From TrEMBL:
<protein>
    <recommendedName>
        <fullName>Hypoxanthine phosphoribosyltransferase</fullName>
        <ecNumber>2.4.2.8</ecNumber>
    </recommendedName>
</protein>
<keyword id="KW-0660">Purine salvage</keyword>
<dbReference type="GO" id="GO:0032263">
    <property type="term" value="P:GMP salvage"/>
</dbReference>
<dbReference type="GO" id="GO:0032264">
    <property type="term" value="P:IMP salvage"/>
</dbReference>
<dbReference type="InterPro" id="IPR050408">
    <property type="entry name" value="HGPRT"/>
</dbReference>
<comment type="function">
    <text>Purine salvage pathway enzyme that catalyzes the transfer of the ribosyl-5-phosphate group from 5-phospho-alpha-D-ribose 1-diphosphate (PRPP) to the N9 position of the 6-oxopurines hypoxanthine and guanine to form the corresponding ribonucleotides IMP (inosine 5'-monophosphate) and GMP (guanosine 5'-monophosphate), with the release of PPi.</text>
</comment>
<dbReference type="InterPro" id="IPR005904">
    <property type="entry name" value="Hxn_phspho_trans"/>
</dbReference>
<dbReference type="Pfam" id="PF00156">
    <property type="entry name" value="Pribosyltran"/>
</dbReference>
<dbReference type="GO" id="GO:0000166">
    <property type="term" value="F:nucleotide binding"/>
</dbReference>
<keyword id="KW-0963">Cytoplasm</keyword>
<keyword id="KW-0460">Magnesium</keyword>
<keyword id="KW-0479">Metal-binding</keyword>
<comment type="pathway">
    <text>Purine metabolism; GMP biosynthesis via salvage pathway; GMP from guanine: step 1/1.</text>
</comment>
<dbReference type="GO" id="GO:0046100">
    <property type="term" value="P:hypoxanthine metabolic process"/>
</dbReference>
<dbReference type="GO" id="GO:0000287">
    <property type="term" value="F:magnesium ion binding"/>
</dbReference>
<dbReference type="GO" id="GO:0052657">
    <property type="term" value="F:guanine phosphoribosyltransferase activity"/>
</dbReference>
<keyword id="KW-0547">Nucleotide-binding</keyword>
Length: 180
């Protein structure tokens, strides 16, 4: 079974759900009456977007962007490609970007710059996971769920060669999985 390939669970399903409630409450307070555009970054942010937005108790609009900087492997290529753009204009909008993880920071720094260039009124970032040791550019999220160590993590949207996104928790794979 898939779970037999996991060496260690770093963040449990319960901890993730509790964090979604907490972040949802903070977002509700901050964005009450502002009708923010909540942008999920595909594919990784999909489970977090689904769970977090259910805990936001004020009107929001949701949209998605698909960008890729990793290709298929473990390291960022450094080049960000837009695979799917927003359907909505960000001009004059309060934009809240939802991410599963900030690692090198390249994906988000690209998106933040892009939304400012497109004249968003404000751009903020909420990430489930923050891996500060991976940073290649200066970037501090406005809200972060958990700090993770400098290891490749999978689950709850995060993949290794497109697998493991459907795990309900965040974990680390057994080393033999990468070797095979
Ligand atoms: O801070 P960075 O080093 O840029 O890494 C973070 C980004 O990389 C992953 O996405 P990926 O490009 O692998 O696409 P995916 O979400 O479809 O897996 C992850 O979901 C973040 O979007
Ligand atoms: O640790 C990670 N795991 C999965 N995808 C990622 N994209 C950036 N960092 C990671
Ligand atoms: Mg990925």
């Amino acid at each position: 079974m898939m779970k037999d390939e996991i060496k260690e669970v770093l963040i449990s399903e319960q901890e993730i759900q509790d964090k979604c409630r907490e972040l949802g409450q903070r977002i509700t307070e901050e964005y009450e009456g502002r009708f923010p555009l909540v942008v999920g970054v595909l594919k990784g942010a999909m489970p977090f977007m689904a769970d977090l937005t259910k805990r936001i108790d004020t009107h929001i609009e949701m949209d998605f962007m698909d960008v890729s900087s990793y290709g298929k492997g473990l390291v960022s290529s450094g080049e960000v490609k837009i695979l799917k753009d927003l359907d909505t204009s960000v001009e004059g909008r309060d934009v809240l970007i939802l991410e599963d993880i900030i690692d090198s920071g390249l994906t988000l720094s690209y998106l933040i710059e892009l939304f400012h260039y497109r004249k968003a009124k404000s751009v903020k970032v909420v990430t489930l996971l923050d891996k500060p040791d991976g940073r290649k550019v200066d970037l501090v999220p406005d809200m972060a769920g958990f700090i993770v160590p400098d290891a490749f993590v999978v689950g709850y949207g995060l993949d290794y060669i497109e697998r493991y996104r459907n795990l309900p928790y965040i974990g680390v794979l057994k080393p033999e999985i990468y070797e095979s």
